[in-house]
Amino acid sequence: MPLALEYDRHVWRKRAPRARLALWFGWLALAALTAWSWQVMTQDTIWSFVADAPRQARDIGARMVPPRWEYAARLWHPLWDTINIATLGTLLAIVFAVPVAFLAARNTTPSLALARPVALFVIVASRSINSLIWALLLVSILGPGLLAGIIAIALRSIGFIAKLLYEAMEEIDEHQVEAVAATGAGGAQVLAYGIVPQVMPAFAGISIFRWDINIRESTILGLVGAGGIGLQLEASLNVLAWNQVSLILLLIFGTVVASEWVSARVRRAIT
Amino acid sequence: MEAGNGVLRLERLAKRYPTGDLALDGVDLDIPAGQVLALIGPSGAGKSTLIRCVNRLVEPTAGRVFLGEAEVTALGKRELRRARRRMGMIFQEYALVERLTVMENVLSGRLGYVGFWRSWLRRFPQADVEHALALLGRVGLEAMVDKRADALSGGQRQRVGIARALAQNPDILLVDEPTASLDPKTSRQIMRLLVELCVERRLAAVINIHDVQLAQMFAGRVVGLRAGRVVYDGPPEGLTARTLTDIYGEEDWSKTIRPDEGETLGEAAAAAHAAALRPVRLDRDRVEGQV
């Protein structure tokens, strides 16, 4: 009841007085919670370490520059592996994610009672586990190497791609589907003419976005032995070779920038 | 043509939506070959439901639909697809596949005749391609063949929609508010094109339309629907203030039916009617001059 009569005038407020009061107490509670959480969070903090932090950061920073450029010769191959893990993992994920998306989308699933819940379970299972954890599992099953990395990336990406794709499929214009069905087209043709053209831009955008994310994720998979540049990162961290670490970080940064550029170009081309 | 021999026959057709709304309440209609029928009525009268029940995009709850000899309402999935090939549908918002080209949209009218892989690889039979090109020429879009559908104007899109429906080689056109998204001039051009094509090909058409004057100008028969029932069925000249009140409810209809120009309006309607029965082109200037 935002409109009220006060002293013979109509007064309009966004909220009624009771709602305003509730909102005020809501904010108060949030502030109190924040203060209390800060207490819990910092009770184990050793403040002398915190006070020391700027000096430590300056020290490590100083050891990082200049990067050890000649080390780069030994990084090109692991970097190439990293890009391959991301790319092949994404392709593998697409192969599985597309059918899963068709099973999961309300308007294309063959059965709401069986196929859709199964597909949704696959999506949730894949999404709920980080690719680093997948990699840990796979390294102990398959042994270390690129294959474990590729499969770890793929397993994590299936859920991501399938979820975004089936959501895009549920948002298509049903009139176009109706029009194709009205011509007497068969089920597969309705899919190919009514639905596929409508989700193509979303599909390409999602895939390239996931590839972009996977480039980043695959740089750390080496930490658990799943191949790529992460292995060199771990080795350099272990021997405190900070000038090598900084070079690796620079290289990863450059790769990510390049992949951003590629995905931006692709996304612009497909709309 | 006698009753019972029509291209399309509806018997006690009824549709009740799961929400409980009774959209169609026992509609009987018999449409002979070559007849252009305008279906008028207020919003929610069941016009869209009626034509969607004919090709079973919406499943009717009761009654029967006959397309020629075939009882559409009794067909299985596969036979229904075959029956749908004989019914071309045209939509208010065009319902073109926006990201496909004009040619692909027109050829999609052939999907019912072509196997999946041929259609997926876009390898349509040469005869289909030639027919599609001829249709695009007929509707005046020969220059737009390779344009994407979303690059066209409203009137052009509706022409593609018409070409797609005709590519099916249908016996009847089901047309859902073809002009509702178009400006008045384009509306007339589209209606004129539709009627001409029906005459050329001796095609029957059911055209949902909420513009009474357009219905009077171009249709040979007008059916008024109100709350899912037929409350008027007759020639366009038969629409009077009284019948329009039956269809739409109380309102000042004198401006719509133009009693002072009754003569000329009757003439235009008669011309359209005659044109719908005779294979002649409508005289564009004369009809436009009337209104």
Poorly predicted runs of chain A: none
Low-confidence stretches of chain B: 259-268, 276-291
CATH topology of the largest domain in chain B: Rossmann fold
What's the overall geometry of chain B?
globular
Rounded to the nearest angstrom, the distance between the terminal CA atoms of chain B is 32 Å
Shape of chain A: flat
Quaternary state of this entry equals heterodimer
- Main beta-sheet strand count, sense and barrel state of chain B: 6 strands, mixed
Name the helix and strand elements of chain A from N-terminus to C-terminus, one letter apiece.
Answer: EEHHHHHHHHHH
CATH fold title of the largest domain in chain A: MetI-like fold
Average the pLDDT over all residues of chain A and give the rounded result: 89
Written overview of the protein:
- The complex is a heterodimer of chains A (271) and B (291).
- Chain A is 76% helix and 3% strand.
- Chain A is flat, with a radius of gyration of 26 Å.
- Chain A is mainly alpha-helical.
- Chain B folds into two domains: 1-86 and 171-183 and 199-291, 3-Layer(aba) Sandwich (Rossmann fold), CATH 3.40.50.300; 92-169, no CATH class.
- Chain B is 40% helix and 20% strand.
- Chain B has twelve helices and ten strands.
- Chain B has helices at residues 47-54, 77-85, 102-107, 116-120, 126-138, 154-167, 184-201, 212-218, 241-248, 254-257, 262-277, 284-290, and strands at 8-16, 22-31, 36-40, 62-67, 70-71, 87-90, 172-176, 204-208, 221-226, 229-234.
- In chain B, strands 6-7-8-3-9-10 form a six-stranded mixed sheet, with helices on both faces.
Describe what is shown at a glance.
The complex is a heterodimer of chains A (271) and B (291). Chain A is an all-alpha fold and 271 residues long.
Question: Strands, helices and their partners?
Answer:
The complex is a heterodimer of chains A (271) and B (291).
Chain A: E1 3-6, E2 9-12, H1 17-42, H2 47-64, H3 76-104, H4 115-128, H5 131-142, H6 146-170, H7 174-182, H8 187-221, H9 230-238, H10 242-270
Antiparallel strand pairs in A: 1-2
Helix pairs in contact in A: 2-10, 3-4, 3-6, 3-8, 4-6, 5-6, 6-8, 7-8, 8-10, 9-10
Chain B: E1 8-16, E2 22-31, E3 36-40, H1 47-54, E4 62-67, E5 70-71, H2 77-85, E6 87-90, H3 102-107, H4 116-120, H5 126-138, H6 154-167, E7 172-176, H7 184-201, E8 204-208, H8 212-218, E9 221-226, E10 229-234, H9 241-248, H10 254-257, H11 262-277, H12 284-290
Parallel strand pairs in B: 3-8, 3-9, 6-7, 7-8
Antiparallel strand pairs in B: 1-2, 1-4, 4-5, 9-10
